[in-house]
Structures are given as C-alpha cells and as structure tokens.
Design a protein that fits this description.
Elements: H1 2-16, H2 81-91, E1 104-113, E2 132-141, E3 156-164, E4 167-174, H3 187-194, H4 210-218, H5 223-230, E5 244-245, E6 250-253, E7 259-268, H6 277-286, H7 290-300, E8 306-314, E9 341-350, H8 355-360, E10 373-374, H9 379-396, H10 479-486, H11 490-504, H12 510-523, H13 525-535, E11 569-573, H14 581-592, E12 598-603, E13 612-613, E14 624-627, H15 648-658, E15 663-666, H16 671-675, E16 684-687, H17 690-703
Helix pairs in contact: 3-4, 4-12, 5-10, 11-13, 12-13, 14-17
The structure holds CIS-heme D hydroxychlorin gamma-spirolactone.
C-alpha cells in the first residue's frame, strides 16, 4: 500500500511541478479516506496554481508569454520550444468523444448500505449497516455528440462507479429499464441508425429521421424501449428526477457460493418528473446545459440528489416462470411480480473540480464487477463486457486507462501487466510473470473458490450446441410495450402518441412510415390509428395477437406528486416601475427558502434585487411563475418595450401555464392571469398574502405538471 501511495506522490510531482512552486504545495499529504468532509480521494492529484510562476511542462520558469522572434517584427524561431510545446499540447487537448453517451455530466457522492446483505451477496459494500462507499456517477444522453443539448429526447445513461474496498464495481445503466436489442451484435446497427445521416450529418441528437425508424420497425425488439423514450422518460425534468436501472439480469453470489438472479434499480428520492416536449425543444436552444446546470446547482446549494438502491431477486430456476425470459433485456419484471428490496441509498454531494480529468476521463466498464456480483447469460450483456474495455483503449490511446486518477480503485493493484502508453507506475518486481519463485510467488493467486477473489458463481453451468440464433423465449417483443402503454395515464399516453407523430411525420420514406404503422399496430390498433391520422395514412386492420390488458403500477411519471421540491426555481415577474414589486419579490424569496426553492426575480433591468432580465428570461427556465403586484404595468400599454421582446412578461406567464406549471399572481397583478389566458383551475394561485400563496404554490410545485391543461384526443 505504502509503495503505491509513494508512487502516486511521484506522479503528482510530475503533474504539479511542485519543486518550483511557491506558496501552498500542490501535493497534499494523503489523509485516511473519510477523515473529514473535505477529504477526497482525488485531492492528491489536484494542482493549485494560485501564487505560482508560469513554468514549462518540465518545470522551468517562463519569463513571459511572448514567442521568440528574430527581431521584434520577425518570424518566430523553430528553437522556441516554449511556444512549440504549448501549441503542441493544445493541438492534442481532445480525446475521442464517447461513441455513444458523449454528452453528459457527473458528480461524486456516497453510497450507504442499509444493512448486512451477506445472505444474498458477498459484495463487501453491502455487508454492514451504515457502510459507506464513495461513488462517481455520470448521467448522459445516448445519440448526441459531446456539445449537443441536454434536453433532446433520448434514453439517458445512469452510470455508477462504486469505489469499494474490494475494487471498483461499475453499474452502467440507463434511466429506462429495457433496451432496444437483445443481442450485442446488433449494437453497431442500432447506433448507426440513430446517429445523424452519414452524408450530411443531420439531425443531431434526434431519432426523428428515416434510418432510426427504419431500424425500429425492422427490429421490433426496439419497440418497448422506444415506447419508454417517447413517453416522459425520454425528456426528464433533470437527472435528479429519473430512476436508474441495471437493465440486464445479473447475479448476486454469497460467500457460500449460492447465487440468484437480480435486477438492479435506482429509485429517485426526488420523484420522477418530466418536461413536456415543447419545453424540452425550446430549452435545447435557450439553455443547452439545462440538466448539467441543474445537477451542479443542486449540489452547490446543498440539495444533492438521492436515490434508493434496490434489487429484484429471482431464483435461478424461475428465470422462465413469468411468461418471458429474464435473460431478455427487452423485458421488465413487473414489481407486482417481484418487489424491489431496498438495499441502500446514494447521495451525490460533490461536483467535479475538472470536467476533463473527471467526467470526460471516467471510463466505466460493465466488466468491472466485484466479488459477490456476477454476470448472467443475457447475450446483450455478454457483448457489452467486451465493448467497454475495448473502447477505452481507443479513447485513452493505450491500455493504462485504469491508472487515471478517476479510474483508480481505492485498493492496491498487483498483477503482471506491464508498460504501455502512459504507464504511471514504477513496478519494482522484476519477475513479472506467474508462477515465479524469484518474487516469492507474488503476486499470489487469491483463493479461486470461496472467500477471497472470486466473483463467478460456482454453481453456474452452461451447455448447448453452438448456434447463431435468438432463443424462442425472446420472441414476444410486443406484449410488454403494450403493458407499458396500458400503465400510463391518458394524458401521458397522449404525450407518447404526440411524440410518435412528431417523429414519424418527419420521415421521408413511405415504406418506413408504413412499416412503423404495422409494428405499432401489433402493440395497439388505437396507437397505430392515432399516429396514422397525423401521417395521413390508414392503420392496418387490428392485429390482436399480442394485445393484452396487463398493467404495472410503477411506470407512470405523471400520476404522483413529488416527495420534495428542493432545488426547484420559481420566477417572480416584477417591474421597477411597479409599486413595490421588488420588495414583494424579496419577501417571496424568503418565504420559499425553507422549502429549498430558489426565487429568480425577473425585471426590465438588472437593478439591485433583480436576477434576470425579460430580455433573457424564458418560462422554460422555471418550475413555476408568479407575477408580483405592481408588475401588471407590463401587461397594459407598457407591454411593448425596447428592453425586451414584445409581450415577453405575458408570454412567460402564459407559456408556463400552457406547459402545466403552477402559476400565480399577487394583489393588484391578479388581473393579468385572465389577460394571459390563465383559467382558474388547479395550479393557479392568487392572493395578497405572501405566506399563504407560497404554501399553496409549494404544493403546486410538488404536483409539478397540472395535466388537465393538456388536450387528449381519441
Ligand atoms: Fe453502452 C457507453 C449504457 C448497451 C457499448 N453505455 C455507455 C454509457 C452508458 C451505457 C450509461 C456511458 C457511460 C459513461 O457515462 O461513460 N449501454 C448502456 C446500457 C446498455 C448498453 C444500459 C444496455 C442494457 N453499450 C451497449 C451495448 C454495447 C455498448 C450492447 C456494445 C456492444 N456503451 C458502449 C460503448 C460505450 C458505452 C461503445 C461508449 C463509451 C463507453 O462505452 O465508455 O462501449
């Protein structure tokens, strides 16, 4: 252990150029993990440039930042190594973005086990009540490139690294519990179909194009996941408001070697919440960093998000007893059949200090499991195990990516892997092979059967002829898509149909459109008919083989109120011409604070007390909108101003209302509600009493979307 930390220090020296620095040393002495709230495992890799001189990459002080020229007006010299190296380093600043999930944001946190779960797993992070394990979690969208907008419609990645005391465990999941395909060999096809067209590279981060729906309709295993993505799960309110899933069945294995199948779940303790499509689209332009911002701000304001971690446990012999195969990643196990047992809780409480070093360089791998956790025979999972190891070599440029600070396990690493690009360690063992006698047999093999060092379930057996085939137990890919749709409330079903109308109406190929209707019709004639209507096409005759009335209680996003509204933002619309609207905004800010809701005061100018101008503010940025008394002056003759686009205050209020948000008006401003098309139905708050209004409004924020405001067709 000591040797490893000594080496870390050496590495840090090279990075920090410590001997030449003045003031605070860049390399801090390592403290035991968790000794104080400030203590963090990346601390020793940080570089503190405050109070320092500029140096070259090898530590020589640099006099100034001008290039070396032959005469003041002459050309720069080839011998100017300072300039050459600086430009060269810049030229190589980027690494390849992730082939999928390129756009994302991450945070540090801690996982706490609720108990000693050694009855179901030998995983050390779960073997003690209250045991804490550091985590690093990255959220992402799948299809867009690294600079794409956060609120595009997509499946969202939810990748968690547990730095356990027995090595790293990466649970690389999504916010949707199922996947488009059943076999990893189809992954490149899926991704090629959803990525932008190869000739013109459009559209960015969107599936509203022919190749995506061509694939979806030719490969109907995609339908179930597609339904989840077309519903609210594709456009969450924030990363904080989505669940996470391991998707595949994995195995938990005990110290005694017994194993069971499990599905892993992260249940958001903020409650599930989703945007509506128009909001999401506008946000993509108004604030492409909306989710990134939200996560960062929530953590900085002490409202770090939390998730409960749980498992559905299934006996090995029950793998086929639910009417589908639990090795098929296009299926959920409805929680009515197997409830989720909560095992622990995760809280994110620390933002990265450097996006590139941490978020961009974190390299998750499905193959990173720890003792007590094992794979299943799910063919999608099997292929993933290879892909993640391989892709990191492409991104990092060599095999030593696990040595990067964010990727290092928090335990010693001893093996005979050597050298390679970017090797950080100075291995002292000259007998880098096994077995050996020259190094006393070290590193020695850990016991392969019980106790130290196994993660493969000893009872696992496989047999069979070699076949390239899909198991007949994977054949029904329509029934669960139907069950998902049945389980949504009517307005949510409408959102899903609207999303399909939006996407399918942009398809150019008549054949693809017709194939889409054929597949939708296998799930529901009603869906095919309603989507077809927007396409000006007749749905095929009902195809009822997979029609069913099954429902599950745990998939709707719009059927519940949120357990907390902490981290939400409310706009208070004011006018500096209005009588006292700014002081009322200040009172509202104070009244919202105990609920963890922040107030953004919007005004014509950035005068003291105003946080945003009408010229920049937009309803998409807020979870609720209140017009302060006095601001009604901006509705009448003053609705047009050169300081903001015409009618902007009214637009903020009416958009917020239209998108289902709680809205309100105080005192003399009450009249603007009707004037802005706001009817007095649930989620509209009026009155002169700040405390009274805020109390009702906080409840309205918990409802989040007042769904009666959206039309449903039939
Ligand atoms: Fe994947 C990244 C999730 C199937 C190949 N995947 C990646 C990330 C997430 C997922 C969250 C981003 C990790 C991060 O934040 O760095 N992927 C999934 C889920 C799947 C899935 C839940 C199905 C259940 N993936 C899947 C298959 C393959 C891949 C079948 C290949 C055969 N995935 C990759 C990859 C990526 C990746 C190309 C790109 C960057 C990376 O791995 O680190 O290897």
């Amino acid at each position: 252990m000591q040797m490893i930390w000594a080496l870390f220090t050496l590495v840090g020296f090279a990075i920090g150029g410590c001997p030449y620095m003045e003031g605070e040393p860049a390399i801090k002495a390592r403290q035991p993990m968790g000794s104080s709230a400030e203590d963090h495992f990346l601390d020793e890799f940080t570089v503190d440039d405050s109070n320092s001189y500029l140096t070259s990459t090898v530590g020589s002080k640099i006099q100034d930042d001008k290039s070396l020229k032959a005469g003041e007006r002459g050309p720069t010299l080839l011998e100017d190594v300072i300039t050459l190296r600086k430009i060269q380093h810049f030229d190589h600043e980027r690494v390849p973005e992730r082939a999928v999930h390129a756009r994302g944001a991450a945070a540090h946190g801690v996982f706490t086990s609720y108990g000693d779960w050694s009855n179901i797993t030998a995983a050390s992070l779960l073997n003690q009540t209250g045991k804490e394990t550091p985590v690093f979690v990255r959220f992402s969208t799948v299809a867009g490139s690294r600079g794409s907008a956060d609120t595009v419609r997509d499946v969202h990645g939810f990748a968690t690294r547990f730095y356990t005391d027995e090595g790293n465990w990466d649970l690389v999941g999504n916010n949707i519990p199922v996947f488009f395909i059943q076999d990893a060999i189809l992954f490149p096809d899926l991704i090629h179909s959803v990525k932008p067209a190869p000739d013109r590279e459009i559209p960015q981060a969107a599936t509203a194009h022919d190749s995506a729906w061509d694939f979806f309709s030719q490969q109907p295993s995609a339908l179930h996941t597609l339904f989840w993505a077309m519903a609210g799960n594709g456009i969450p309110r924030s990363y904080r408001h989505m669940d996470g899933f391991g998707v595949h069945s994995f195995r938990l294995v005990t110290n005694e070697g017994t194993s069971k199948f499990v599905k892993f779940h992260w249940k958001t303790l903020q409650g599930k919440a989703s945007l509506v499509w128009e909001e999401a689209q506008i946000l993509a332009g108004k604030n492409a960093d909306y989710h990134r911002d939200d996560l960062w701000n929530a953590i900085e304001s002490g409202n770090g998000p939390e998730w409960e971690f749980g498992v559905q446990v299934v006996d090995e012999e029950d793998a086929l007893s639910f009417g589908f195969d639990i090795l098929d990643a296009t299926k959920i196990i409805p929680e009515e059949l197997v409830p989720v047992t909560p095992l622990g809780k995760m809280k994110l409480n620390r933002n990265p200090r450097n996006y590139f070093a941490e978020t961009e360089q974190v390299m998750y791998q499905v193959g990173h499991v720890v003792r007590g956790i094992d794979f299943s025979e799910d063919p999608l999972l099997q292929g993933r195990i290879y892909s993640y190891f391989d892709t990191q070599i492409n991104r990092h440029g060599g095999p030593n990516y696990d040595q990067l600070p964010i990727n290092r396990p928090h335990v010693d690493v001893h093996n005979n892997q050597r050298d390679g690009a970017g090797q950080n360690f100075i291995h002292l063992n000259t007998a880098a092979y096994s077995p050996n006698t020259l190094s006393n047999g070290s590193p020695r093999q850990a016991n392969q059967t019980v106790g130290n060092g196994f993660f493969t379930s000893p009872t696992r057996r496989v047999e069979g002829n070699l076949v390239r085939a899909t198991s007949p137990t994977f054949a029904d890919v329509w029934s669960q898509a139907r069950m998902f749709y049945n389980s949504l409330i009517p307005v949510e079903q409408q959102f899903l149909i609207n999303a399909m109308r939006f996407e399918a109406s942009q398809l150019k190929s008549e054949i693809v459109k017709s194939n889409v209707l054929i597949q939708l019709n296998r799930v529901s004639h009603d869906i095919a008919r309603r989507v077809g209507e927007a396409l000006g096409m007749q749905a095929p005759a009902a195809d009822p083989t997979y029609y069913n009335d099954n429902r599950t209680a745990f998939v709707s996003i719009f059927n519940h109120t949120l357990p907390t509204v902490r981290g939400f933002k409310v706009a208070v619309l004011t006018s500096d011409a209005g009588n006292g609207s700014l002081s009322q905004a200040a009172a509202l800010r104070q009244a919202f604070a105990p609920a963890g809701v922040s107030v953004v005061v919007v005004g014509e100018r950035l005068v003291p007390g105003v946080n945003a101008t009408y010229s920049a503010a937009d309803a998409t940025a807020f979870d609720g909108i209140i017009v302060a008394s006095g601001a009604e002056v901006l509705w009448g003759a003053n609705a047009t101003s050169t300081l903001f686009p015409s009618q902007r205050p009214k637009q903020i209020l009416s958009d917020g209302y239209r998108w289902g948000k709680p809205v309100g008006a105080m005192g003399s401003a009450e009249g603007v509600l009707r004037e802005s098309g706001v009817d007095t139905i649930p989620g509209v708050y009026a009155g002169g009493d700040v405390q009274g209004l805020v109390k009702g409004f906080v409840e309205g924020l918990g409802v989040f979307k007042f769904v009666d405001r959206f039309a449903v067709d039939s």
